[in-house]
């Protein structure tokens, strides 16, 4: 179902970013082509080397490469290339930017350029997740036609217990597989 699908995985700054490594591994095992875009803050939680090794592609972090080569990563090209854009974990910051059409980084610019289905899997602490502004941003994203992968309930990194845990990579895979499974008309 995901064989030869082109998946952009956007990874945002969250302690749950470590789960992105397993998600990339599962996508590659399913024979998808994976391009990872890492936000600047995500690099504090997981390294580009880890995700590049698993995806077999360089991880994109900026519009323009820092080596002064002038090479830039075209967000429009990326948005047209992808069969799906999966943002996991999606931080409150990135969710807010997406909901309001702000694009100050490669991931949010690619989101605004994407013509493919977008899957948003949030991860954040309980109070952030429940905040009315964040809940409104979730509603806005869904009203734009984005697919929302609900955060799980359990113990959070802060020690609080509640909703905000990133969905497990296997559950994200199930959502993607279901989406790409052809429907049989009866």
UniProtKB/TrEMBL annotation:
Transmembrane segments: none
Name the UniProt record assigns to this protein: Flavoprotein domain-containing protein
PANTHER family listed in its UniProt record: HOMO-OLIGOMERIC FLAVIN CONTAINING CYS DECARBOXYLASE FAMILY, PHOSPHOPANTOTHENOYLCYSTEINE DECARBOXYLASE
Residue intervals of the Flavoprotein domain: 5-177
GO biological process, one term: coenzyme A biosynthetic process
Molecular functions (GO terms): FMN binding; phosphopantothenoylcysteine decarboxylase activity
UniProt lineage: Bacteria, Pseudomonadati, Bacteroidota, Cytophagia, Cytophagales
Signal peptide coordinates: none
Species this protein is from: Rufibacter radiotolerans
Pfam family, one: Flavoprotein
């Amino acid at each position: 179902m995901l064989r030869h699908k082109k998946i952009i995985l956007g990874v945002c700054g969250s302690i749950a970013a470590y789960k992105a490594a397993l998600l990339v591994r599962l996508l590659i095992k399913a024979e998808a082509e994976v391009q990872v875009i890492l936000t600047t803050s995500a690099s504090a939680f997981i390294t580009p080397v880890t995700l590049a090794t698993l995806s077999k592609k360089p991880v994109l972090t900026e519009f323009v490469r820092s080596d002064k080569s002038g090479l830039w990563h075209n967000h429009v090209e990326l948005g047209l290339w992808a069969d799906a854009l999966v943002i996991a974990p999606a931080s409150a910051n990135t969710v807010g930017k997406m909901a309001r059409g702000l694009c100050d980084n490669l991931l949010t610019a690619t989101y605004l350029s994407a013509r493919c289905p977008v899957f948003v899997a949030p991860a954040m602490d309980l109070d952030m997740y429940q905040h009315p502004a964040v809940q409104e941003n979730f509603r806005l994203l869904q009203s734009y036609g984005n697919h929302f992968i609900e955060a799980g309930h359990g113990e959070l990194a802060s020690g609080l217990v509640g909703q905000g845990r990133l969905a497990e990579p296997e559950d994200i895979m199930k959502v993607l597989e279901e989406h790409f499974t052809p429907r049989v008309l009866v």
